[in-house]
Design brief:
This protein is mainly alpha-helical. The protein is 80% helix and 0% strand. The longest helix is centred in the N-terminal third of the chain and has 14 residues.
Length: 153
């Protein structure tokens, strides 16, 4: 039963029917409080709604259930970034990269944060890694150029 509610929640989330998705993920958690993926998706949903404190609350629960899930750290990075907590966001994105070094999206988000923090060399390196992993990330090429321009290159 848990898997059915969770899968329906994913469908609703992918269709941007966030209220329905939230209900389904909460229903899944009420049936199985240890269903870690539901906490992760609920945290993602709250971050999309800019409910960053709520996102961090459920992501903390997800982290307790599985401290090795890179996606939890990615979503925590997004939530902290939304709250302008750049140091916490950077730590979360960095941990996500450590746990899943092959995810270009995490490296891109880490790079945009580093650019915002005026850590241009690190930002350019993060964008280069994202481009290496996914050459079709046009945004990375542009952001990397901004970082290099800021460095005077």
């Amino acid at each position: 039963m848990t898997k059915a509610y969770y899968n329906l929640g994913l469908v609703e989330l992918n269709e941007s029917r966030l209220e329905e998705a939230e209900k389904l993920f909460k229903k899944t958690i009420s049936i199985d409080p240890n269903h870690q993926p539901s906490y992760v998706r609920l945290g993602n949903l709250y971050a999309r709604q800019k409910k960053f404190s709520a996102a961090l609350e459920v992501l903390d629960q997800a982290l307790k259930l599985d401290p090795s899930d890179w996606l939890v750290y990615f979503n925590m990075g997004v939530a902290h970034k939304g709250m302008e907590k750049n140091d916490q966001s950077l730590a979360a994105f960095t941990r996500a990269v450590e746990l899943n070094p092959s995810d270009a999206r995490t490296r891109y988000n880490r790079g945009t944060l580093l650019l915002k923090m005026r850590k241009y060399r690190e930002a350019v390196q993060s964008f280069k890694e994202a481009i290496r992993l996914n050459p079709f990330l046009q945004r990375c090429v542009l952001q990397s150029g901004c970082g290099l321009w800021s460095l005077g290159r």
